UniProtKB/TrEMBL annotation:
E.C. designation(s): 3.6.1.-
Name of protein: Small ribosomal subunit biogenesis GTPase RsgA
Segments forming domain CP-type G: 108-261
Record: residues binding GTP: T157, K158, A159, D160, G203, H204, S205, G206, V207, G208, K209, S210, T211
Keyword DNA repair: no
HAMAP family membership: GTPase_RsgA
General function of this protein: One of several proteins that assist in the late maturation steps of the functional core of the 30S ribosomal subunit. Helps release RbfA from mature subunits. May play a role in the assembly of ribosomal proteins into the subunit. Circularly permuted GTPase that catalyzes slow GTP hydrolysis, GTPase activity is stimulated by the 30S ribosomal subunit.
């Protein structure tokens, strides 16, 4: 460690008291350490971008303890932030997360894992054919988005191979926005949805995510190889999500690692929040009502019978609720 680095170390590690609201005696504060964003993670090495765009490799430092750091996190870093090859900064603090996308780790495991932090939009990518679209999978992604308070949109790809009409009629009662794309086709509508947002892309292998990402971020490959220069590791060994800045504002987080969304942790209350009209009516439900079709006195049924709610909206909401219980793997 150079003398300059050591100085910086001490400056940030010395506990400081602030004004009238002192922190715990032994806990250092890093309020002046620069903020960076985690763009990808590979075997304990965190690639972060500083506010000026410098790409820095960092590791977790002791003050974090067992706290997780995920892609999309905003962190404070100390140490060498030059980004030069072979240098390593340290992550000393994770800033409060605005959103977290999580999943139950496994069906036989009660653990929840955070996948991505601070996304405010989820793009559910499904091909119209090859591989065939699966409404059940869209439903499960919607549940995950509603649970996390992340606004979902559905992006149907490969429009040259199939028609979106049937799926559109299934989605219409859910009030979810949809864009339809095809390779080489216009992307203006999708760009409008992504601009100035942090969007997490989910979808299984082969749906055309890379094709989309490359069209949206023309230098995505270059950015990836730059990361490789820094970490000295190959892209394909990583199962981490990766955050890419969009040239028109905002960023996207590609998630090759998401193979499944265990959804056992998701509570009905979290889903119904995304359906304000139903939530209003459900205030009249008996205590503990699950709002599922077998509930004898669910207020949603009463409202449908009295013409206060469209039946198809309640049916769609129940399909979403029920999708939590279906197989996690996709
Ligand atoms: N016909 C057609 N094929 C497409 C379209 N978009 C992508 N493809 C093809 O579909 C295949 C999968 O596309 P990718 O972009 O690699 O899909 P991905 O979702 O990134 O898949 P992984 O890389 O395995 O995660 C490739 O052969 C693409 O050329 C499209 O709009 N129409
Ligand atoms: Zn009910």
């Amino acid at each position: 460690m150079s003398p300059r680095e050591r100085d910086e170390h001490e400056r940030f590690e010395r506990p400081r008291r602030r004004g009238s609201r002192p922190r715990t005696k032994d806990r250092p504060t890093y309020d002046e350490a620069p903020i960076a964003r985690v763009v990808t993670i590979d075997r304990g090495r965190y690639t972060v971008t500083a506010e000026d765009g410098t790409v820095v490799t960092a590791m977790k430092s002791r003050p974090l303890g067992r706290q997780g750091v995920v892609v999309g996190d905003e962190v404070r870093i100390v140490g060498d932030q030059s980004g030069r090859e072979g240098t390593l900064a340290r992550i000393v603090e994770v800033l409060p997360r605005r959103t977290v996308l999580r999943r139950t780790a496994d069906d036989d495991e009660a653990l929840e894992r955070v996948i991505v932090a601070n996304a405010d939009r989820m793009v559910i990518v499904q091909a119209l054919a090859d591989p065939p679209p699966r409404m059940g999978l869209i439903d499960r992604c919607l549940v995950a988005a509603f649970d996390a308070g992340i606004e979902p949109i559905v992006c149907f790809t490969k429009a040259d191979l199939g028609s979106p009409d049937d799926l559109l009629s299934l989605l219409r009662p859910l009030d979810v926005r949809v864009v339809v794309t095809q390779r080489g086709g216009p992307l203006d509508e999708l760009r409008d949805e992504l601009r100035d947002h942090t969007s997490v892309l989910v979808g299984h292998s082969g749906v055309g995510k890379s094709t989309l990402v490359n069209a949206l971020v023309p230098d995505a490959d270059r950015a990836t190889s730059h990361v490789n220069e820094v970490t000295g590791r190959g892209r394909h060994t990583s199962t981490s999500a990766q955050l890419l800045a969009l040239p028109f504002g905002g960023s996207i987080i590609d998630t090759p690692g998401i193979r499944s969304f265990g959804l056992r942790h998701v509570e009905t209350d979290h889903i119904i929040r995304a359906f304000p009209d139903l939530a209003d009516v459900a205030l009249d439900c008996p205590r503990g009502c699950t709002h599922l079709v077998e509930e004898p006195e669910c207020a949603l049924d009463v409202a449908v019978a009295e013409g206060r709610l469209p039946a198809e909206r309640v049916v769609s909401f129940r399909r979403i609720l029920a999708s939590r219980a279906t197989a996690a793997e996709y």
